[in-house]
Write a structure and sequence with these properties.
Length: about 160
């Protein structure tokens, strides 16, 4: 799928919507179908991610079904400023420490959310072996760069 930069922004904004398992995802005022929410992660690390596939096929489906998926988009929900547990996990255990690393010129340790996000992407790449993965840059440049580097280091295709 080739999306314009405006469409990619619209897709990335969907991370803040109330996405539900098996729900359909559209852009361009509900004119262009992107896919189905096939899996939702809400991990203790603070990671919230959504696996969007061109047809509803969960990660738990047999390989023969997962091989039929042709397009996948992984959306990572960014941090919010509300008083939810999700926001607390993001800020208390990830964002503050990541900010200190950036201010101090980086560091070797990646926060749990970054590691978890890389693992999610690696598992998704493996789960849908015939799919083309859409690159939608989202959340933060730090997360995007770290996840992409982790995937490249581990030798996964992207």
């Amino acid at each position: 799928m080739k999306n314009s930069e405006e469409e990619k922004v619209e897709i990335a904004k969907q991370q803040y919507e109330a996405l539900h398992l098996k729900g359909e995802l559209f852009i361009n005022t509900n004119k262009e179908f992107i896919g189905y929410v096939s899996h939702i992660n809400s991990k203790i690390t603070g990671e919230q991610s959504f696996i969007i596939t061109d047809k509803y096929v969960p990660l738990s489906a047999p390989l023969s079904e997962r091989e039929s998926v042709k397009e996948v988009t992984v959306l990572y929900r960014g941090s919010s400023f509300d008083s939810s547990l999700d926001a607390k996990l993001d800020w208390q255990y990830n964002n503050i420490f990541t900010a200190f690393q950036v201010i101090n010129g980086g560091g070797a340790a990646a926060m749990p959310q970054l590691q978890s996000s890389a693992t999610t992407l690696q598992q998704t790449l493996e789960a849908y072996p015939n799919a083309e993965f859409n690159r939608i840059r989202q959340k933060s440049p730090i997360l995007y760069r770290w996840v992409m580097n982790a995937v490249r280091y581990e030798g996964y295709r992207w």
